[in-house]
Amino acid sequence: MTIRVAVIGAAGRMGSTVCQAVQAASGMELVARLDAGDEISPTTLAGAQVAVDFTVPAVTESNVHALIDAGVDVVVGTTGWTKDSYGRVRTHLASPEAAGRSVLIAPNFALSAVLSMRFAALAAPYFESVEVIELHHPAKVDAPSGTATATAAAIAAARQQAGRDSSPDATETDPQGTRGGLVDGVRVHAVRLSGLTAHEEVLLGNPGEQLTIRTDCFDRVSFMPGVLLAVRKIGEREGLTVGLDQILDL
Ligand SMILES: NC(=O)C1=CN([C@@H]2O[C@H](COP(=O)(O)OP(=O)(O)OC[C@H]3O[C@@H](n4cnc5c(N)ncnc54)[C@H](O)[C@@H]3O)[C@@H](O)[C@H]2O)C=CC1
Ligand SMILES: O=C(O)C1=N[C@H](C(=O)O)C[C@H](O)C1
Known about the structure:
The chain is of the alpha/beta class. It folds into 2 domains: 3-105 and 221-247, Rossmann fold (3-Layer(aba) Sandwich); 111-218, Dihydrodipicolinate Reductase, domain 2 (2-Layer Sandwich), CATH 3.30.360.10. 34% of the residues lie in helices and 26% in strands. It has helices spanning 13-24, 42-45, 57-69, 83-93, 111-123, 146-162, 224-233, 245-248; strands at residues 3-8, 28-34, 50-53, 73-76, 102-105, 129-136, 181-183, 186-192, 198-206, 209-217, 239-242. A hairpin with a 2-residue loop joins strand 9 and strand 10. Helix 5 (111-123) runs parallel beside helix 6 (146-162). The longest helix is centred in the middle third of the chain and has 17 residues, at 146-162. The mean pLDDT is 98. Ligand LZUJQKHR binds at residues 79, 107-108, 136, 140, 145-147, 198. It is an enzyme of class 1 (oxidoreductase).
């Protein structure tokens, strides 16, 4: 059976790549391309069963609520989600009008990034120190990246569960904030550099040893297998799913 797909943010870097991937995928049909200024409604969605949102952090949540109201399942790659905004989507999906609808939100659809996050959480309790460095193209509007935020959260949860203290750090003065930001107690550093696409390094240190976990996405095609898998699987799920790992059964 063919899955009819709408892409929201279709004129963007990711949205346009998703349009190409859907058009090339077997068993999928691209029925709508929406971007800024287009209304989200059953008419503009043109019979889509699944909508894929790659827009901007400022609008993605309201898009998702409008898409649920329009009666489609939603796959979201846009960043900027918080525990509160997840909670509002969960509440919406639990309402009788949204019965049977599903939403999958993933900060990263690349297999190397999803596995990196999992490996980082696995390793985090075994090292005294851990810091995250995310590196992206300079057109990216948000920092830290959604992937780094999720990585830090997973590291923090794993360390807390293991009773591991925060990383040692004797810094007393840092007026320029050069030690980076704290996400769930984990230091995160954001680099923006021409030539880069999407990269992340997790540095883990013990006396006399270091483990580096690194993912490099050189091209946006790296995200497409994960996006297409989510489009295929979303209909089998109900409610809110956060993270591609949930449908990879990692
Ligand atoms: N989950 C993942 O694997 C990945 C996530 N991303 C995230 O996806 C998002 C988009 O990234 P890019 O494509 O690089 O950005 P982009 O800036 O190239 O594209 C965003 C598009 O959204 C459109 N847009 C803005 N407001 C809109 C609205 N109200 N309705 C519909 N469209 C609207 C813009 O006009 C633009 O065409 C970012 O949050 C980025 O961090 C990016 C790469 C991979
Ligand atoms: O803006 C990007 O490009 C990316 N955004 C996502 C993020 O913020 O984690 C995913 C990937 O890193 C590319």
